[in-house]
Structures are given as structure tokens and as C-alpha cells.
Write a structure and sequence with these properties.
Layout: H1 11-18, E1 25-28, H2 35-44, E2 49-54, H3 57-66, E3 74-78, H4 84-90, E4 96-102, H5 107-110, H6 137-143, H7 146-157, H8 162-172, H9 178-189, H10 200-211, H11 213-227, E5 228-238, H12 241-254, E6 275-277, H13 287-292, E7 300-306, E8 313-314, E9 322-327, E10 330-332, E11 342-343
Helix pairs in contact: 7-8, 7-10, 8-9, 11-12
């Protein structure tokens, strides 16, 4: 498999937001083609370590080739980021100085890899990142009742023609390929003026549903906070409003000391802030980057910094690393990653 030519989005901004330092320990929860991971390893040398996670085994293989020169400093795991905490515990990789989520598709997903992510290439309606998953886009398209299909396209794709599209899909079943579905949608709503193809939102909705992307993102963000050490950074790059809304609301909530309703006389929630917002305003690509890489145009970067560890404690001011977990033998310390492990499946 050739090394991916994927161009990492907001690369310099990501490294700054993560505050990558020599000797730091970082997690790339969507390692993809390895672009961000390579920059993190470069800037964290000497002594930096990286755990790369991806649900797609093809991404792991591509990242392995791209990051080969860093093989003594990284660990690549084929796993969904919704299991990031269990993965870190399994490999004794915590606490960490920074965690990155780049929620966009890798270039090879859109360039016709045979799994149906792109409406521009003939392929079966699959759309699974992880081939071990059972449900595919074809299952949804060809078995969901019309009202459920319409609701899914409207909610996850924010598509105003969801009812018309769902009705036509049901009429034309079975639909087997991406091009069949794309042509059907174009017939229903016509060619739109602007930058996006008429099938874009429906394909987005199906991909989100197949991979349970939004619910898994919410779970992963909660886990990520508990994996960060003192002053550790959480950085998320989102590409559509549903993802970005989840990230924005999560960070804002975790940056507040109280989350009681506005009219509550006294605080009863017991919530304590665990994050500090690094940038109040969302970071977007520059016009130059959008020109070089048009796929970056919808990217939105948000960053926050860890300020407490509920139920835990910190080490001394001279050694501000987080002390995590407790056992009969005392506080558990993270082990040092000594060699590359390439893991394609986990139980």
C-alpha cells in the first residue's frame, strides 16, 4: 500500500494548540495518513512518544509506513477512539500531555478506496471505517422504513430535502452502489449552485449513522479529559456543524464551575471545571491553506487545557505530572514506551 498523500489540515495551528514539547506524550485519536502524527513526533523529539489510534486498519498500515522512522517512539492501535481510555490503560499510556481528534476523512477515503465514502467513485454502499462492524450504508438504504430514513438524513445531514430523498430511495430499492444513490439524489433535488454536490449531505448522514460518529465523539471527549495530565491540551478539528457543536458545548460546559440552569438561586450541580479554553474563538484555515487544500475549507479547530483531575491528585510543583490510579502497592505511574507495536485488532 503506498504512503498516503493526505495533507494534514491546520497543521501549524494544531501543533501550537497542543503546545507540543520535547519529551511529551501525545495521543492522535484519528491517526489517518499520519500527517499530524509525524509533526507531533518531530516537535516532541527528543524523547517524545505518540499513541496513534484509528478505527480503520487501512489507516494504521498507511500511518505505519509514513511514520517508520519514528518506530521507537510510537504505538499504533486499530481501535475506535470511543475506547481510548481502555486502550491507554491496556498499554499503560497515561497521563498524556496532549490529545488530538481530527474528525475529517483521510484523502484515500475520498479517492475511491472501494468502501463507498465518496459519491464520485463507483463502489458498494459500505461506509464502514472498521470492517468488523456489522451494519453498512447499504443496510440502512435498503431496509430502513421511509420515515426513519428521512429522519436520519435530516438530523445527521441537515438536508432540507430529506423526505423527498427518502421517498425516492424507497421507491427505487434495492440501491447497490454509490453512483446509483448519487444519481438518484441529483434527480430528486437537482444540481445545486455553490460548492457542494447535491449528494454531499445524504452521504454525510449515512456515514455518521453507520459509524455512530456523534455518540462515539461525546464518549471519547469525556474519556480524553481524564487522560490528560496537568496543563495537558485537548484539540479537536471538526468539519461540520453537528460535530463542532458537540465539541463547543462540551468544552464550554467543562470550562464552567457551575452548570446549573441560569435561574437556579444557588448551585446544586456540584460540577467543577476541568478545562480552560485556550482560544475563545474557533480557529479556521487561512485563505492560502484553503487555496492549497480545498478540503480544509470547513475545518474548525477548538482547544482546551486541563486544570484539575476529579478524584485524583497532582505531583509536586517541581514534577507536575499527574498521579493516576490507586492500588495496594501505591500510586501507579505510567510506563515508558520502549518500542513500536503495530496492533490490528483488540478484544
Amino acid at each position: 500500500m503506498p504512503i498516503s498523500r493526505h495533507t494534514p489540515v491546520l497543521l501549524e495551528e494544531t501543533i501550537r494548540a497542543l503546545n507540543v514539547q520535547p519529551g511529551g506524550r501525545y495521543i492522535d485519536c484519528t491517526v489517518g495518513g499520519g500527517g499530524h502524527a509525524a509533526a507531533i513526533l518531530e516537535h516532541s523529539a527528543p524523547g517524545g512518544q505518540l499513541l496513534g489510534i484509528d478505527a480503520d486498519p487501512a489507516s494504521i498500515k498507511i500511518a505505519h509506513k509514513r511514520l517508520e522512522k519514528y518506530q521507537d517512539s510510537m504505538l499504533l492501535v486499530n481501535e475506535n477512539f470511543s475506547n481510548v481510555q481502555a486502550t491507554c490503560i491496556k498499554y499503560d499510556f497515561f497521563p498524556v500531555h496532549g490529545i488530538l481528534f481530527d474528525l475529517g476523512l483521510a484523502s484515500f477515503h475520498l479517492n475511491g478506496n472501494g468502501r463507498g465514502f465518496s459519491f464520485q467513485h463507483e463502489a458498494s454502499l459500505d461506509m464502514r471505517f472498521d470492517p468488523r462492524q456489522q451494519i453498512t450504508a447499504a443496510d440502512i438504504v435498503n431496509t430502513y422504513p421511509e420515515h426513519k430514513l428521512s429522519e436520519l438524513i435530516r438530523e445527521f445531514g441537515e438536508e432540507g430535502f430529506s423526505r423527498q430523498i427518502a421517498r425516492r430511495i424507497v421507491q427505487e430499492r434495492p440501491i447497490e452502489t454509490t453512483v446509483e444513490l448519487s444519481n438518484l439524489i441529483e434527480q430528486v433535488i437537482g444540481r445545486r449552485r455553490g460548492k457542494i454536490h447535491p449528494a454531499t449531505r445524504t452521504f454525510q448522514a449515512l456515514r455518521i449513522a453507520v459509524n455512530q460518529e456523534l455518540s462515539r465523539l461525546e464518549s471519547a471527549l469525556r474519556q480524553a479529559v481524564d487522560l490528560l495530565g496537568y496543563d495537558g491540551r485537548l484539540v479537536v478539528i471538526a468539519y461540520h456543524s453537528l460535530e463542532d457543536r458537540i465539541v463547543k458545548q462540551f468544552m464550554q460546559r467543562e470550562a464552567r464551575q457551575c452548570i446549573c440552569p441560569p435561574n437556579t438561586p444557588t448551585c446544586v450541580c456540584g460540577h467543577e471545571a476541568s478545562l480552560r479554553l485556550v482560544n475563545r474563538k474557533v480557529i479556521t484555515p487561512s485563505p492560502d491553506e484553503v487555496q492549497r487544500n480545498p478540503r480544509s475549507r470547513s475545518a474548525r479547530l477548538r482547544a482546551a487545557e486541563r486544570i484539575i483531575f476529579p478524584g485524583g491528585c497532582y505531583a509536586t510543583a517541581e514534577e507536575p505530572a499527574l498521579v493516576v490510579g490507586a492500588s495496594a502497592n501505591g500510586w501507579r505511574r505510567p510506563a515508558v514506551l520502549k518500542k513500536l507495536r503495530l496492533v490490528f485488532s483488540m478484544s
